[in-house]
Task: inverse folding
């Protein structure tokens, strides 16, 4: 029997058909086997380590972001999460103990060791207090610098954590599912999502800065502002000119970030008020901590040029000057 010649196009058509069928049956989600390409002996998949950025900032550090990026991350039991400091502004990664309220930790108190130093082990037990310590990408924040913090998650559950510095304005959730569950996103997808959020935060920060300029004048200085996510770490306006006997009111018009107005020598504890703002002729004067929506008014009784800082954010460039003329 004569053998029929094969079509030269048959192999290519067969490959196209196989590829088309494979595309239909492949899952949309990222499989655990894909993320954990390397397997350990015995056929068990190795744990994955995921990355979350802590904060964000502009190149000048004037705009800071109060956000964990991504805010929600989905992992499997046995995986780890590494948080990386991504801003000069200080933050913490803090899992509260079972029954502990966030309110009990507010406002942030840097004199308490459990707030500024690492607490808990290397694997999260799902119910105890765990804290990263103070996370920042600069070494001159005034706190012991933590650039990375890693926890393993052996147990299933949805675990909420906060930044103690910014409270409810900055929280994240680690969603831990059973080992072997397909992942909804890859790290690359989380990174792209975070990059989009960072751009939005900077855009909002620039708008907040413009809005603050409209509120400021020679007798009103906006002592930082934020919209709950984007923070402007500047005094607006930075230099004012007044006459002896006149007042300047400093306004924290933000929603989440505390500040201080500090003249003279910076005190060991900037959270404590010092001096008499009703009759200021130079020397040491400190507002103490200024939470959002608070004001601090100073009456200047002597001519001169008086420099001041935010005792929490001066290392980012949050400084100002009041020039008092006769």
Result:
């Amino acid at each position: 029997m004569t053998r029929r010649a094969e079509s030269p196009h048959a192999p290519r058509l067969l490959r196209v058909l196989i590829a088309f069928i494979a595309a239909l049956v492949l899952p949309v989600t990222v499989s655990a086997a894909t993320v954990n390409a390397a397997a350990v002996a015995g056929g068990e998949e190795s744990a994955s380590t995921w990355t979350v950025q802590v904060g964000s900032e502009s190149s000048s550090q004037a705009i800071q972001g109060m956000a964990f990026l991504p805010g929600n991350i989905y992992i499997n039991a046995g995986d780890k999460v590494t948080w990386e400091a991504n801003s000069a502004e200080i933050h913490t990664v803090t899992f509260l103990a079972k029954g502990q309220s966030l309110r009990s930790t507010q406002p942030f108190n840097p004199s308490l060791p459990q707030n500024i130093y690492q607490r808990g082990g290397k694997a999260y037990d799902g119910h105890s207090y765990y804290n990263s310590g103070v996370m920042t990408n600069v070494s001159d924040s005034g706190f012991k610098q933590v650039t990375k913090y890693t926890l393993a998650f052996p147990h299933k559950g949805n675990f909420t954590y906060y930044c103690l510095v910014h409270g409810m304005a900055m929280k994240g959730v680690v969603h831990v599912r059973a080992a072997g569950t397909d992942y909804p996103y890859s790290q690359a997808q989380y990174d792209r999502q975070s990059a989009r959020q960072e751009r939005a935060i900077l855009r909002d920060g620039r708008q907040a800065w413009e809005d603050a300029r409209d509120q400021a004048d020679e007798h009103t200085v906006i002592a930082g502002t934020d919209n709950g996510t984007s923070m402007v770490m500047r005094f607006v306006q930075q230099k004012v000119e007044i006459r002896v006997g006149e007042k300047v009111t400093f306004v924290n018009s933000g929603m989440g970030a505390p500040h201080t107005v500090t003249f003279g020598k910076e005190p060991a504890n900037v959270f404590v008020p010092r001096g008499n703002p009703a009759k200021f002729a130079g020397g040491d004067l400190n507002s103490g901590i200024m939470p959002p929506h608070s004001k601090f008014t100073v009456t200047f009784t002597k001519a001169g040029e008086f420099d001041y800082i935010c005792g929490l954010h001066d290392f980012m460039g949050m400084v100002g000057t009041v020039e008092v003329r006769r």
